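Hey, I'm writing a tutorial for new members on how sequence and structure tokens pair up, and I'd like a real worked example in the thread rather than a made-up one. If someone can provide the structure for the chain below, I'll link this post from the tutorial.
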Amino acid sequence: MSTRNAYSVVAVQSRSNVRHPGRDHVYHSLVMASIGFVVSFGIAAHVHAAEVDCKPDFEITNGKAKAVKVLSLVYTDSGGNDFTEGLDNKKLSAGEKDTWKSVKLQHVYENNLVKSIRVEYRNDTSGEKKPSDPWGPAVKTIWFAQSGNCTDSRVYKITIP
């Protein structure tokens, strides 16, 4: 190896240990910004997740003289938009009531207003000699106006007329 090549290698190696305050500041700023972005995104996602999906209980009473099968809830948010959340097609005999616990309202933030609610259900038609299916077509109750905000501890009480 020649003397010239040995000197060049040494010169390059010694320059790699030289500090560059401007470049170090840029790297430090990029690292801090990246950490800040990751932390703020995590906090924002956590706050957003905590606010969304109000999960109230719904106590539904069958006020009819025959059985019904409860299908879903339809609700109106504060902006006037209607949304539907399916229930478990539970049968309620005449006069029977049941409570659906923690129904996830996917389009309402916790502590936001639900303006109105109605229930979609099917009437029992088994004694009416209907072909094959003992349940009639899906029907919806009237709209029930609501007051107050949706919370996980709220119980909405609805009677199917």
